Amino acid sequence: MAKKTTYTKVLQERRQRRIRKRVEGTTERPRLRVVRSTKHIYAQIIDDTTGSTLASSSSVALKIAGGTVDAAKEVGKSLGERAKAQNIEQVAFDRGGNLYHGRVKALADAARETGLQF
Questions:
Q1: What gap in Å lies between CA 38 and CA 16, rounded to an integer?
Q2: Domain 4-113 - what CATH class?
Q3: How far is CA 16 from the centre of its chain?
Q4: For the chain, which residues make up each domain, given as ranges?
Q5: What per-residue confidence (pLDDT) applies to 6?
Q6: Cα 110 vs. chain centroid, distance in angstroms?
Q7: Residues 86/70, Cβ–Cβ less than 8 Å
Q8: Where on the phi/psi map is residue 74: left (φ > 0), alpha (ψ -120 to 50), or beta?
Q9: What is the per-residue pLDDT for 2?
Q10: What are phi and psi of 54, to 5 degrees?
Q11: How far is CA 107 from CA 6, 11, 15, 36, 38, in A?
Q12: In angstroms, rounded to a whole number, what is the distance separating the alpha carbons of residues 85 and 6?
């Protein structure tokens, strides 16, 4: 039998694929991708038609401990400001197989406060 961590990883990858079937970033509405690890949180705004990252922010880049909800809020604010500087107003939210709860929700709410719509 496989380890529990291996099976958990397999389930998360399935959820990621299921979400990516429906969520696609275009030039008018790029994809906001959230990656959550135990120590940090990362977010990118990606245009899937060209395959380029338009804006990004992370707890590593901001030099804050990323395992908290407060750090996720800071990353969301930072990403929202960077998106606004590039005239990005609407995004498609890609939670990456994570539950919309805790740090992922805090990042999304902070990004919404800066004016991003999704």
A1: 18
A2: alpha beta
A3: 12
A4: 4-113
A5: 83
A6: 12
A7: no
A8: alpha
A9: 63
A10: -90, -35
A11: 27, 23, 20, 11, 15
A12: 40
Place of tokens 């999704």: 118
pLDDT in tens, the chain (118 residues): 567 778 888 988 898 888 888 888 888 899 999 999 999 999 999 999 999 999 999 999 999 987 899 999 999 999 999 999 999 999 999 998 899 999 999 999 999 999 999 8
Those residues whose C-beta lies under 8 Å from the C-beta of residue 17, and which sit 6 or more positions away, are: none
Query: Do 90 and 117 meet the contact criterion of CB atoms below 8 Å apart?
Result: yes
Place of tokens 């008018």: 28
- Measuring CA to CA, how many Å separate 68 from each of 22, 36, 37? 29, 11, 11
Please state, as a whole number, how many other Cβ atoms lie within 10 Å of the Cβ of residue 13: 11
Say if CB 46 and CB 24 are below 8 A apart: no
Alpha-carbon Rg for the chain in angstroms = 14
